[in-house]
Amino acid sequence: MNKAIEVIDLIKDFGKIRAVNGASFNVSEGEIFGLIGPNGAGKTTILRIISTLLQITSGEVKVFDYDVRKDASEVRKLISYLPEDAGAYKNLTGKGYLTFIAKFFGNGKEVREIVEKGIEIADLEERINDKVDTYSKGMMRRLLVGRALMIDPKLAILDEPTSGLDVINAQEVRNIIKNSVKRGTTILLSSHNMLEVEFLCGNIALINEGKIVEEGKPVELKEKYNASNIEEVFTEVIR
Ligand code: ATP
């Protein structure tokens, strides 16, 4: 398997705070990889570094062999980032917003096709024609998932893709993520929801206080710690 992401001894300081403390992990092309851990563990910081939105303090990060520091513009062509919080263009309609984004990735017919895919993924029905600032949190998230995946990126980086969604919507978004992998996208996602990552991810890394404390396939980790779910694995590892 080709490596989609390589993170080696990554450290990130914000002033005196060490947000990431020597994290290393690999993501293979074509898989769904989950980064899970408690609040403040360093998940968003790692995802933002891989997305070229934050500078590294030390260590190395590669995306499809491109160095995020030296080849940031190449990396940006391959990835799509779904932020945890949405600072979208709130005066546009949902469709207007998707069209605005699609124009960065194509022309004419291509734009229409990308937008159609985004509308299908977001699945907001007639509300897609309403202004974004009238959306609920869950609707906003679905719009942004549509935005992140409509371009069939080589790598999608999804920071808590189902946060704020009810059970049904969360399930739909999980299915959308699985389908995008079938179309050739590699996924790196973060979550607090340890049951969700069991369902979605081929491999997971448990992160605590900026360090990867355990890594592997959910089923193997459960076996290793004789646990019935990943929450129990996490509790055991931290202890
Ligand atoms: P959550 O699950 O709560 O979203 P997280 O695992 O994504 O948490 P991060 O947002 O990466 O955690 O934060 C890791 C640490 O870095 C925290 O201590 C946080 O306060 C700190 N941090 C993050 N961004 C900044 C910043 N811009 N300036 C200062 N400290 C920051």
Report strand order across the widest sheet: 6-7-8-3-9-10
Largest sheet report: 6 strands, mixed
Question: Alpha-carbon distance between the termini?
Answer: 33 Å
CATH homology superfamily name of the domain at 1-39 and 46-74 and 192-239? P-loop containing nucleotide triphosphate hydrolases
Number of strand segments: 10
Order of helices and strands: EEEHEEHEHHHEHEHEEHH
Topology:
Elements: E1 3-14, E2 17-28, E3 32-36, H1 43-50, E4 58-63, E5 66-67, H2 72-78, E6 79-82, H3 94-102, H4 108-122, H5 137-149, E7 155-159, H6 167-182, E8 186-191, H7 194-200, E9 203-208, E10 211-216, H8 218-224, H9 230-238
Parallel strand pairs: 3-8, 3-9, 6-7, 7-8
Antiparallel strand pairs: 1-2, 1-4, 4-5, 9-10
Helix pairs in contact: 3-4, 4-5, 5-6
This protein binds adenosine-5'-triphosphate (ATP).
Adenosine-5'-triphosphate binds next to strand 2 and helix 1.
Structural notes for this entry:
With 239 residues, this protein is an alpha/beta fold. The protein has a domain at 1-39 and 46-74 and 192-239: 3-Layer(aba) Sandwich (Rossmann fold), CATH 3.40.50. The chain has helices spanning 43-50, 72-78, 94-102, 108-122, 137-149, 167-182, 194-200, 218-224, 230-238, and strands at 3-14, 17-28, 32-36, 58-63, 66-67, 79-82, 155-159, 186-191, 203-208, 211-216. A six-stranded mixed β-sheet has the order 6-7-8-3-9-10, with helices on both faces. A four-stranded antiparallel β-sheet has the order 2-1-4-5, covered by helices on one side. Strand 1 (3-14) and strand 2 form a beta hairpin. The longest helix has 16 residues, at 167-182. The relative contact order is 0.17. It binds adenosine-5'-triphosphate (ATP). Adenosine-5'-triphosphate is lined by residues 14, 17, 19, 37, 39-45, 84, 192. Adenosine-5'-triphosphate binds at residues 14, 17, 19, 37, 39-45, 84, 192.
